[in-house]
Amino acid sequence: MAKDKYSAVWVSHSSIGDWQKCPRAYFLKNVYKDPKTGKKISLMGLPLAMGQAVHEVIENLSTIPVNRRLVEPLTLKFDRVWKKFDGWFDPSAAEPYRVAGREMLKKLMGRPGPLTKLAVKINMDLPYYWLSETDNIILCGKIDWIEYLKKSDSIHIIDFKTGKADEAANSLQLPIYYLLAGHTQNRPVAKVSYWYLNRDPQPVEQPLADPETAEAKILTIAKEIKLARQLNRFKCPTGGCRECQPYEKILTGGVKLTGRDELGRNVYILL
């Protein structure tokens, strides 16, 4: 089969996570399109809004020269990004999240670590590679931060966390980023880390994945997703769970349309 990225099934850490939690949630988040607009749908809550704003501030730093990254306080950058959510949420409910986001970035300015060192940018809007040409499956994802390690001419992958819960020990997030970095740039991956911004002063290194094992596991899941898409079979295992039920409300009402995100999806807020 000739490579055709437009007909391929694209999988990522987030879509695989959706599938593993609930196939119906996967469908609503990654396949379903509003018949009135032809657009995919997205549900926004305050924790997600805060996390997105913090990530946007940090990720934009990698395009700024090292000696100028912290010239403007990150809290001021956050305030500008947060304005995009004006009118989306009840102000009294939103205020604690605005404050929490500013506090994370305030702490980060006091111990910026890798943010004041050279970074690597992958020259793709959305990094991806062919996980399997035979199966017509593409693996994609955006890596939060790639630190350049000059002594070894290698890289350090860092994923920023703004929530309180730890990433599961069996998470495929860092293995997926490891594979993506290995296929979309030339330097070897020396380290991978999570950085829980609300508690850790520095990134916490995690074990490196075995690429063959990780790729085989991801491909197995991706084939399950592809088959479900071919059969149009996306059932919630419990008949309605906390993963899919909020999205079902978009189909039945009880939500507010706020606009569209950078991916062109219709963004809704639960009422």
General description of the model:
This is PD-(D/E)XK endonuclease-like domain-containing protein. It comes from Candidatus Beckwithbacteria bacterium CG1_02_47_37. The protein has one domain (9-270): Lambda Exonuclease, Chain A (Alpha-Beta Complex), CATH 3.90.320. It is built from eight helices and ten strands. It has helices spanning 13-21, 23-30, 46-60, 74-82, 91-110, 173-184, 211-231, 245-252; strands at 9-11, 41-43, 128-132, 137-140, 145-149, 154-161, 189-196, 204-206, 255-260, 266-270. The chain has a four-stranded mixed beta sheet.
Keywords:
38% helix, 3-stranded mixed β-sheet, alpha/beta, Lambda Exonuclease, Chain A, PDDEXK-like_dom_sf, 4-stranded mixed β-sheet, 271 residues, 10 strands, single chain, PD-(D/E)XK endonuclease-like domain-containing protein
